[in-house]
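Lecture notes, continued. The same structure-token format from the folding unit now serves as the input rather than the output. Read the line below as a description of shape only.
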């Protein structure tokens, strides 16, 4: 990194909850509609992360939700989160490395976690049988730019029944987002989109997909209403892929945040949402925008503008878009805006480093 501040931010938080790796943000049939777990990542060295609970019906927010339910802090930096097939909220943490499982309705810790096989875990997805987690690992190369490349990133695989480690599979550099679709696991790495066949408790590489004109790495993956994959490449844009043959359909030069690269979809998969924060020469945030991409015609435009965004989410209940004016030294300010025109519906004080939104 160029300096210590930038290094801490990158290590603690490139991407990024709702986690962006499934077409829907949670399982269908949950009676508790309209609730949002907000992940406040905190500052990496301070373990100042927290969880907030937002009610879309009352527009009320409860901060320090985990602490109130359990009487202690989570004691880590929360990178991302995921609503599991069994309707638990999994919190993917660093410093120390662990995945904590909580009841999203009450905030109560389920009393078990994953710690084995994790080294700087990033994101998680799960099937009925297995859990898959991307890890940066600790081996890295310092590039001429000053950035770090984590050259031995891997996916750790666990049994979903007892959470025991089954296998660690090397996948490339800087592994981030992942997605499960039709017995395949898709992983975003610096080399592009890695496509794996799932064979029991193992994954087998079948293809690597990256546009020849894209110079940066892949970060996150979503699937649209037409069952096409969209992959973010910070600094380059989006790549659309046909999962039937792993062929690139098109690319789109929509701005994608250089640190995070996070993307998500609305419930129907009609639109993709991403964001981008730009900085001045002294690394102070200059401007931030939420972008809305129409998947039917590949058009996009600005939906909402602010100063410093660090994530985006879309409610499957209301269709409202969630982001925050983020701070890593004090409380962030949650912004809920209309997906139709970007008008502000509500603002609320959240926690430090607000980054992801888990809808259940």
């Amino acid at each position: 990194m160029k300096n210590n501040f930038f290094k801490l931010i990158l290590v603690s938080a490139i991407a990024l909850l709702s986690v962006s790796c499934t077409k829907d943000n949670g399982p269908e049939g949950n009676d508790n509609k309209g609730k949002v777990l907000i992940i406040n990542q905190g500052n990496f060295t301070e373990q100042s992360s927290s969880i907030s609970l937002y009610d879309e019906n009352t527009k009320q927010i409860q901060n320090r939700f985990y602490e109130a339910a359990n009487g202690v802090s989570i004691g880590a930096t929360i990178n991302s989160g995921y609503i599991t097939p069994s309707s638990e909220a999994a919190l993917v943490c660093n410093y120390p490395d662990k995945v904590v499982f909580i009841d999203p309705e009450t905030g109560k810790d389920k009393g078990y976690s994953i710690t084995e096989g994790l080294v700087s875990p990033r994101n998680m997805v799960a099937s009925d049988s297995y859990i898959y987690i991307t890890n940066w690992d600790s081996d890295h190369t310092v590039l001429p730019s000053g950035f770090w490349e984590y050259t031995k990133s891997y996916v750790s695989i666990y049994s979903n029944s007892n959470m025991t480690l089954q296998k660690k599979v090397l996948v490339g550099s800087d592994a981030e987002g992942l997605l499960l679709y039709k017995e395949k696991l898709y992983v975003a790495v610096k080399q592009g989109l890695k496509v794996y066949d799932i064979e029991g408790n193992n994954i087998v590489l079948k293809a690597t997909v990256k546009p020849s004109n894209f110079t940066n790495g892949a970060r996150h993956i979503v699937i649209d209403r037409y069952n096409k994959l969209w992959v973010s490449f910070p600094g380059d844009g989006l790549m659309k892929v046909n999962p039937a043959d792993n062929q690139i359909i098109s690319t789109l030069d929509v701005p994608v945040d250089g640190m995070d690269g996070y993307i998500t979809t609305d419930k129907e998969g009609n639109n993709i949402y991403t964001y981008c924060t730009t900085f001045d020469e002294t690394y102070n945030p200059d401007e931030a925008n939420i972008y809305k991409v129409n998947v039917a015609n590949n058009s996009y435009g600005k939906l909402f503008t602010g100063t410093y965004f660090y994530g985006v989410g879309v409610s499957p209940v209301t269709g409202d878009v969630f982001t925050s004016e983020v701070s890593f030294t004090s409380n962030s300010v949650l912004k809920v805006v209309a997906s139709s025109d970007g008008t502000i519906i509500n603002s609320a004080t959240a926690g430090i480093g607000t980054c992801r939104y888990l809808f259940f």
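Point for the exam: The chain has one domain: 4-359.
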